[in-house]
Amino acid sequence: MLNLTNRLFSPIKVLQALFFSWVDIRNPVATTVALNRRNLYIFPSLTGLCVFTLSSILWLLGTSYQNNLVLALSYLLVSLMMVAIFHTYANLAGLTIKVLGVKPVFANETAYFSLQLSAAQHKHYENLTIRWWQGEAACFDLQPGQVLPIQVALDAQKRGILTPGKLLIESRFPLGVIRCWTWVNLQTSAVVFPRPLKVPFPVQLGCGNAGEHGTGGQGMEDFDGLKVYRPGDPIKHIAWKHYAREKGLYSKQYSAQLHQDCWLDWQDFAHFEVEQRLSAICYWVLHFERTQQPYGLIMPDTQIKPAIGEQHRLTVLTLLARFNLARGV
Amino acid sequence: MHTPQDIFQQQQLIRHDNLLWLLIAQGVVILPLLFQLPLWLWLIWGGALYWRYQIFKGKRPFPNSISKFLISALAIVGLFLNYQGAYGVEAMVGFLVFTFIIKLLELRSRKDGLLIICIGFIAVAAQFLFVQSIWATLYAAFSCVVLITAWKTIYVTRELPVKQKLTGGGLLLLQAIPLMLVMFVVMPRLGPLWHTPLLNQQAQTGFSETLSPGDIGSLVQSTGTAFRVTFLDETTPRQSELYWRGLILDTFDGRTWARQSHLQFAGAPVPNGASQSTVNYEILIEPHRYPWLFSLAEPIKSDTGSVRSRITSEGLLITREPLTTRLQYQVSSIRPRETVYKALSKQQRQQLTALPIGFNPKTVALAESWRQASDSAEEIINKALAFYHQDFHYTLSPPLLGENSVDDFLFSSKQGFCEHFASSFTVLMRAADIPARVVVGYQGGRYDASENYWSIRQADAHAWTEVWLAGIGWLRVDPTSAVAPQRVEQGIDNALQADDRNRVAAGQFSAPQWLTNLRHRFDAANYLWSRWVLSYDAQQQSQLLKQLFGGKEPWRIGLIFLLFLGSLMGAYIVFVIRPKWQARTPLQQALKTFDNTCQQWQVQRENSETIAQFCLRLRGVQPQLDTACERLARLSQAALYDQQQDNQKQLVSALKQFPKE
Q: Residue A3: which residues within 8 A CB-CB, separation 6 or more?
C-alpha cells in the first residue's frame, strides 16, 4: 500500500519504471551487446530545449520586424536540431559492448567493471559517456575499428554480490541538443567482501600468540630459511639482500608460520551481530595472510581447512561474501 | 594518466582550443555590428579579450561580482548617454553586444560556452536588422559556419586540424539548409505581432520634404537604388513617360519649395470612363523613412499588403507611417485625362498662384508681359518653354544664386539642374496667374531585359511642374525637357556633360563597360534577392503554395513536411543502411555467379551443400565437366583448410569462370 502511494506521488518514477520494464523486454541480459535501432533511444536534451526556445525568440523577432532572413535563421536552428538527430544516432550505432570481468572488492570500496568496447569500421565515436545506473560517469572516444578496454566504476556499498544493474551509454555529439542513449543489461556481477573490522582476537583460540602480538609480532619469530618467491607473498618478507646479489627473488620463512593452524570460528565472534562478525573474520583473514599464518574457517554450514595463499584467501572471503544471501541481496 | 572519470569531470569545463574557437566565433559575429554601434565598444571588446587572455595565462583571476557590476553599470550609463535615453533597436543591440563581450570574462564551463553560441545566433539576427543584402547574408552564412564549428568543438574532445573542423561545421550547415528552405517556404507567415521600436540611426534617403536649388543635384550624386518596378502588362510605357511622382510642393518662400497640408485630402482620382486601359505595375521600394510611395499619374488602385496606405486627391500614394522596411506594392494607374475633372475652389486657386511679395521682380514682370500678349494658358506655357530652349544649360554644377534666386537663374546664370528649371517655371506660371505646383520624384529608370524590370536609382531623381488648365485639369510640364530632351528620352546618363558624369554616383557612368555590366548583373541579382527572398510574405506564399501544391491548408503543409522527412529517411536507408545488406564478400559473390552458371544444367546447389559435395554430384550428372569439377573441389578444400590469400583468390576466379579451367 505504501508502495502504491509512493508511486502515485512521483509520476516521473512511474514513467521511469515503465520505461525500464519496456527496456528489459526489448533487451534481455547478455554478455555482448551491439548498439542499433532496437536498443538506442533518442530525445531532445535540455540544451535542445534551450536552442528551441532561442529559435522561437528569433521567430518572434523576425515576425515582428517582418524580416525574412531572421526567420530563416530561426528555421536554420530547428533544422540543425533535426540534422543533429542523425549525427547523434550515428555516434552510437554500431558500437559493441562486451563484458570482460570484474575483480572482487571490499564493501565501501569501488568496484571497477572491465568492459570491452569495439568501434565499427570507418567511423569515429566522439565523446561518449558511460556509467552504471547509479555509478559515476566516464568519458571516452573511439577510433574507427578500435577495441577499447574500459573500467566503469561503481561503489560497492554492502557485502554480497554486486549486480551493477543497467549500463548507460550516452552521446550528445555534435551539438548537445539531442541526447541518444542506451540502457544495456549486462551479465556481470562483482563479489563484495565484507569490510574489514579490527577487533581483538577471541582468546579461546589455539593460536593465541598471533593475536597477542598482532601486527607487531613478526620480529619475535625465528628466521627459518628461504623459499622461492610466489606472487602473493608479503613484500616485507622478500629477501632483498639476496635479490641485490642477483641470486633471485626469495621470501624469508619464519618459524611462526609453521605454528599450529588457526581456526576462525563463526561461533567465537558471537558477541557481534552478523555483518560485524563477517567483517571481523574478514579482518583476521587479511591479518593471517599478512603474517603468512595458515588459517581455517568454520561457518555454521561449511568448513574450510586451514591453508594459506591467494587462492585460499579468495575462497574464504567469497564464502564470507556469499554468506546468508537468501535475504535478497 | 587520466582515468575516464577524470576526463568526464574536465569535460564540464571549457578546454583551451574550445575557448579559442569561441573567441573567434564571437569576433566574426560581432564585427559587422561593431561598425553600427558606438566606437567605445571596440575598446571594451579589446579589453575583455586581453583580460580573458590574462586569465588563460593565469596572471589574473576571473573578475569578482563587484567589478562585474561596476563594468556593467558603466556600460549601461555609456549606452544611455550615447543614445540619449532613446529606447531604440540600436540601444538594445548595443546592450546585447556588450553582454556578449562581457560574458567572455565568465567563460569557464561548457554551459557558458553554449550561452556564447546562443547569443552569437541572436547577434547574427541583429545584424540582419541593419543590412539584408546578399553580401550580408553570405557573411552571416560564414558566421554560422564558425559558430557551428565552435559549438561542435564543445562536444568533440579529439584534436583536429582547423580545416577539418571548419569542414565539419560547414557540412552540418549544408545538411541543415534543405529543411530550412522547406520551412522557409511553407511555414505560415504572420503580420507584425506588435509595434516594434525602429532603427533610428539609419539615415533617410531620397529627397526631403522641401526643395531648394542644389538639392536634387546632390541627391543625384548619391549611389543606391530607390526602387524597382515590374510592369504586369504586355505593353510598358515609354521611358519618357515614366514620371514617378512622389511628393507635391506648393508653397514658395522665394528660395525653397515646401508642401502644405494637402496630403490630408483623401479620395483617389476617379476614372471618368473614357478609357479602360490601366497600367498595372509592381514596385519594390527600399525603405527611405518617409511616408510616401511612388506611382505614375494617376493611381486609382493600390495594394500595399500589411502596410497601411491611401491615395490622396492629388494622385499621390502615401503611407500612414514612415517606410522603415522594404515594401512590395502594386498600383494601377490611368492617364490623368481619364479621371473625373474637379474644378479648383477659389481658395485652392489662390494658394496655387501665391508667390512671396517683393521677390524676383524681373521674373514676375516677364510673366506679366507674356500674360498680356497671350490669349490662352497654353500659349504662355509655350512661350516659357521657348524661352528655356534659347540658351539655357543643363548642368550639375550651376553657379550660386543670390537672394532673388529665380531672377538670377533666368536672367544671368542660365545654368541649372532640373530643380532650377522646375522651380523657375512654376514661379513663371504662378506670376502669369496659372495655378502651378512642383512635383518631385524620379524620371525614367534603367531596364533590365534579363529579369524584365526597371531599376530606378537615386541618380534618376527629378523635379518637374504641373499646371492647372481650365477644362483639362492638371497637366504635366517638364521644362528640363525643353533644355535637355535627352534627359527624358534616354535618361540622365546621356544628358550630362563628361565632367558632370564623373560626379554622378562616384563615377558610376564613366566606369569601363565590363564593370558596368557586372554592376548591372549584380543589381539584377539584388533585385531577385529582394523580390523573392526578402519580400516573400503571406501573399506570395499562398500564390506559390497554390502553384506548387494546390493550396495552403494545414493538412497540405503537414503532408509536405511528412513527405520531405520521409524522403530524408528513405535517402538515409538507401545510402547508409542498405549498403550493409548488400555487402557481400568476394567469395559470396563468386558463389552466386557459380550457382547461376549451374542453372543451365538444371542442377541446383542446396544451401547446406559444400562446394566439394556439389561438384561430386555435378560430375555424376554432367560427365563432361569432370576435370573442372575435380579442380573446383580441390580448390575449395584448399581455400578452407590451407587458409592462404592465394587459395581463396584462385577459388573465387575458378567459381566465376566455371566451367572454363
A: none
Closest-CA residue to B383 (of B432, B334, B435, B436): B432
What are B589's three cell numbers? 559473390
- Please tell me if residue B577 touches chain A, with a CB cutoff of 8 Å: no
Query: What domain range includes position B636?
Result: 586-657
- CA B658 to chain A, closest CA, distance in angstroms equals 34
| Same domain, residue pair B545 and B486 | no
Q: Quick one: A20 and A37 in the same domain?
A: no
Lay out the sheet containing A166-171: strands in order across. A41-44, A178-185, A166-171, A125-132, A138-142
In a domain? residue A60: no
Q: pLDDT digit string (tens) for B340-379?
A: 777 788 888 888 888 888 888 889 999 999 989 888 888 9
Instruction: Say if residue B433 is exposed, middle or buried (CB neighbours under 10 Å; 0-12, 13-18, 19+).
Output: middle
Tell me the per-residue pLDDT of B618-647, one tens digit each, with 9 for 90 and over. Answer: 888 888 888 888 888 888 888 888 777 788
Interstrand relation of B436-443 and B243-249 (parallel, antiparallel or unpaired): antiparallel
Cα separation, B557 vs B570, whole angstroms:
20
Q: For the domain that residue A125 is a member of, what is the CATH number?
A: 2.60.40
The residues in A 73-102 lying below 8 A from B, measured between CB atoms, are 73-80, 82-84, 86-87
User: In sequence order, what E strands does chain A have?
Assistant: 32-34, 41-44, 96-102, 105-106, 110-118, 125-132, 138-142, 147-155, 160-162, 166-171, 178-185, 190-193, 223-228, 250-254, 262-265, 295-298, 303-307
C-alpha cell recorded at residue A309: 595463499
What pTM was computed for the model?
Answer: 0.72
Which residue bears the cell 568543438?
Answer: B153
What ipTM score was computed for the predicted complex, to two decimals? 0.78
Place of cell 599478512: A290
How are strands ordered across the β-sheet holding B461-469?
B243-249, B436-443, B461-469, B473-477
Based on the fold, state whether residues A220 and A319 are members of the same structural domain.
yes
Interface subset of B 310-349, CB within 8 angstroms of A: 325
- Identity of the residue numbered A41: Y
Task: Determine, yes or no, domain membership for B522.
Answer: no
Given an 8 Å threshold on Cβ–Cβ distance, is A61 in contact with B132?
no
